[in-house]
Amino acid sequence: MILTVTLNTAVDLTYRVPALTPHASHRVTQVIERPGGKGLNVARVLAALGHETVATGFAGGATGAVLREQLAATPVRDELVETAGPTRRTVAIVDTATGDTTQLNEPGPTVTAAEWAVFRTRFTALLDGAEGVALCGSLPPGIHVGAYAELVRLARTAGVPVLLDTSGEPLRRGIAARPDLVKPNADELAQLTGTRDPLRATREARGRGARTVVSSLGPDGLLAATPEGLWRAAPPAAVKGNPTGAGDSAVAGLLSGLVENAPWPDRLSRAVALSAATVLSPVAGEFDATAYEELLARVKVTEEPDRP
Length: 308
Prior knowledge:
alpha/beta; 26% strand
């Protein structure tokens, strides 16, 4: 079983419009509603890959009820903790003429100390039997900034490999707790290390405590600093579509490869192909299965000289 944690879940709304114009009214041609938040996107992709997957985190209010009803229609097991405050919504507006996406994210409910205590107890119990755990996304109001560091330490104590995908101060503190893998994007990596040179920043991030750092370089693929060496993985060509959730699919690919003990080239190929196939899908947390299989065979993975 793979466990995913989404402390700031959401009901994701995707609006597709012929063209997005500021200060104008728009006719929406399609509305798609899905359970969301980074960890739930990861969970759905893992389930589609054939892994038994359990999702925990928080959900509450009317939007939380909608989220849980939608999650029940998937293979993902619901172990979310109820909150008094309502689950947030996110809105992705897709300009179908250009393929560009505009994202609007609500902050999320304020989680109380009592609700955090219930979650912590449930998380600890779920670690028993977990092959791996993903800690994903932003922290909702009320959760202390060291929450991910606390959860990383709990997973390490239980002997469960842990992947961390967050940003800002939660990433800075979480990486110091020595997770097995972190997956920052270029902006998150620059914020953490103070440099925009991908190679230097990835190495420096690994030096802060993570066993492995896999940096997302957007359309250029992934750069991985691992105990076995330095790797680059790139898609065969740029793809156009909705990039929302592409990074979450990469996390699912990396975590599935980790629990399967796959070689690094296979893990990275899977992550890049899933990410690109998600861009080709209309909603986050889903991927174009045909495109994934076709892309998987064409991802280019190279081992780089690991020189200072």
